[in-house]
Amino acid sequence: PGAYGDPHTILVRDYGAIGFEDSVSAVVFGYDSSDEAAEGFALLQDAALDCPGVYEENSYTNVRVDDSSGAIPFDPPADMAAQVGYITAVGNSPATPDVGTWTEMVMLHADSRVLYVTQEFDGMDNNCSVAPDPDIEQCVLAAAVPDLLERLMRVS
């Protein structure tokens, strides 16, 4: 996304992750207040929901987006201003029309911080469940939300 509010600090910026062959990036934004962080979160979430526009501008076909934010198990401390967003998008590239380019995005707002994590990969499908399910593996970033929230609260 090109807009994320007016953070006073970008606390962490990381590209790639151990154990991931695919493109993964994470950014933690620090704001002056929880309200400013909530505004930044909303901007990031809106931009993620517009991800199909980016695909279509690049001549991708079969583009779709899914906002599964409500399916994420999310249990922040009661005294914390917090929210989670989980959005996936997919489209077929003109170069490889039989293979989808998938983008998985997690946004976390915790008090005056916002974490934005995105993973992109190419494949025929993305067979995973957003919520824990005994019959199918949980999506990697969705499963990581409790740990991501804990780490976001510890960032100094």
Structure report:
This protein has 156 residues and is an alpha+beta fold. Helix content is 24%, strand content 35%. It contains four helices and six strands, in the order E-E-H-H-E-E-E-E-H-H. Strands 1-2-6-5-4-3 form a six-stranded antiparallel β-sheet, sandwiched between helices. It starts with 8 loop residues before the first strand and ends with a helix. The model has no long low-confidence stretch (mean pLDDT 86).
Compact summary:
The chain has helices at 34-49, 51-57, 140-143, 145-154; strands at 9-15, 23-30, 61-67, 82-92, 100-110, 113-123. It has 156 residues and is α+β, with helices and mostly antiparallel strands.
Task: Give the SSE layout.
Blueprint: E1 9-15, E2 23-30, H1 34-49, H2 51-57, E3 61-67, E4 82-92, E5 100-110, E6 113-123, H3 140-143, H4 145-154
Antiparallel strand pairs: 1-2, 2-6, 3-4, 4-5, 5-6
Gross morphology is: globular
Radius of gyration: 16 Å
The helix-and-strand class reads alpha+beta
Helix proportion of residues, in percent?
A: 10-25%
Low-confidence stretches: none
Number of strands: 6
Strand order of the largest sheet: 1-2-6-5-4-3
Please state the average pLDDT score: 86
Q: Terminal Cα separation, in Å?
A: 24 Å
Provide the number of structural domains: 1
How can the largest sheet be summarized? 6 strands, antiparallel
- Report the order of strands and helices: EEHHEEEEHH
Strand content: 35-45%
